[in-house]
Write a structure and sequence with these properties.
By secondary structure, the protein is of the alpha/beta class. Helix content is 44%, strand content 19%. It folds into 2 domains: 3-149 and 201-234, Rossmann fold (3-Layer(aba) Sandwich); 151-199, no CATH class. It has 8 helices and 7 strands, in the order ααβαβαββαβαααββ. The longest helix is centred in the N-terminal third of the chain and has 26 residues, at 3-28. The chain starts with a helix and ends with a strand. It binds S-adenosylmethionine (SAM). S-adenosylmethionine (SAM) binds at residues 51-54, 74-76, 79, 102-104, 119-121, 124-125. S-adenosylmethionine binds at residues 51-54, 74-76, 79, 102-104, 119-121, 124-125.
């Protein structure tokens, strides 16, 4: 394991710990997720899929609080195991399940879900395959909540690395900026092992989503310039 992957793994463990603490706070105070709850108001929700789910923190507001069935998928075994353990320990009545799966190949029948959440995980996937899978498993009229990392997110990472003299984040951000630029110019995402992470923009997303009958309706109020979040619908 190289230095950067060891660091990635430590950062991921610390991300999972922070997420766990945040989820405990969400459970104690559901108003913390008011915007997500409002997004679902009046929308029929029986089955929710969270892709790149971490420990399933989005499943609490989107599925559990609505009495719906929530499924979390993630490439990380550890995230899925911790998600299972977390809900068994803290929300034993919750109807949730976790499965290790890739966004690019979802193990579900077409039109299985009313809501799909995909928060800050699209950058790490083959975007075209992942978006086509979302469109497939979402029912007509279904709701797709998508959070992305914009160019500005990686420009900031690059700048912070440069000014602090920390080379690894700078190299990482430089690679992502290169891959994302190629993707935006050519319409093809570079999928080399070291170059597959990419940034997205609303312009590129609108183009990719429209191929599958998915339309951006609005941005969430908590959307930021570096990490925009979109409310998207699938054509009925
Ligand atoms: C930055 S975390 C975001 C987690 C969570 N959705 C959130 O908003 O906090 C990205 C997650 O995506 C997962 N991931 C990365 N590539 C993936 C893929 N191809 N398919 C499914 N999950 C993936 C990672 O394991 C990680 O848990």
């Amino acid at each position: 394991m190289g230095l950067s992957s060891r660091r990635d793994s430590e950062e991921y463990d610390s991300y999972l710990n922070v997420t766990r603490e945040n989820l405990l706070r969400d459970i104690a105070d559901p108003t913390r997720n008011k915007i997500l709850l409002d997004t679902l108001a009046g929308f029929e929700v029986a089955r929710v899929l969270d892709i790149g789910c971490g420990i399933g923190q989005a499943l609490f507001p989107l599925a559990v609080s609505r009495g719906a069935f929530g499924v979390g998928v993630d490439v990380s075994d550890k995230a899925c195991r911790l998600g299972d353990e977390f809900y068994a320990a803290h929300v034993p009545g919750a109807r949730v399940a976790f499965a290790r799966a890739r966004a690019e190949r979802l193990p579900f029948a077409s039109a299985s879900f009313d809501v799909v959440n995909f928060s800050l995980a699209l950058p790490y996937t083959n975007n075209a395959q992942a978006i086509s899978e979302v469109a497939r498993v979402l029912r007509p009229g279904g709701l797709f909540l998508l959070g992305i990392h914009h160019t500005r997110y990686y420009l900031r990472e690059f700048w912070q690395g440069l000014t602090s003299g920390d080379l690894l984040p700078m190299i990482h951000a430089g690679r992502v900026l290169a891959a994302g630029t190629i993707y935006h110019i050519t319409g093809r995402q570079p999928l080399h092992r070291r170059l597959n992470e990419t940034f997205q923009t609303k312009w590129l997303l609108s183009k990719e989503l429209s191929k599958y009958g998915l339309t951006i309706e609005r941005e969430q109020p908590y959307s930021t310039r570096r990490a925009p979040s979109f409310v998207i619908f699938k054509k009925s």
